[in-house]
Amino acid sequence: MPWREICPIDEKTRFIAAVLAAEESMTELCAEFGISRKTGYKWLQRYRARGPAGLYELSRAPQRVPWAITNAQAEAIVGVRRAHPSWGPKKLRVKLSERAPRRSGRRRARLANYCAGAG
Fold first, then answer.
1. From CA 5, how far away is CA 112, in angstroms rounded?
2. CA–CA dist 89, 97 (Å, integer)
3. What is the mean pLDDT of each run of 10 residues along the chain (119 residues)?
4. How far is CA 56 from the centre of its chain?
5. Residue ranges covered by each domain of the chain
6. Which of 91, 98, 61, 51 is nearest to 115 (CA)?
7. What b/e readout covers 89-118, taking b as 16+ CB neighbours within 10 angstroms?
8. Interatomic CA distance for residues 55 and 53, integer angstroms
9. For position 117, what pLDDT does the model report?
10. Is 68 in contact with 102 (CB distance < 8 Å)?
């Protein structure tokens, strides 16, 4: 007997259809589909908020990267580095901190990596 392929979206759609039909309780439906009640309510909430598109998995990637630098910061780093190619990351950090004291949290290692990649 071959394995039965199960598509998660199809199963979620069947679950939502069963919930909306209201023939069985949420607890019974969750047990039938092999999911927790918390997951069942989460799927139902997403379906009500976004429609069928809410049943797809959400990205788990961070919404922002806290250590990323802006284009202006990148241009400042590259500009100082090109003006003074003999300066290392330690001195670059000090000089950039003098220009913009609020952004003095740049780490030496990150500056070194960026300078190595940017030239």
1. 50
2. 12
3. 80 94 93 95 95 91 79 82 86 81 60 66
4. 15
5. 8-55, 71-118
6. 91
7. beebbeebeeeeeeeeebeeeebeebbeee
8. 5
9. 64
10. no
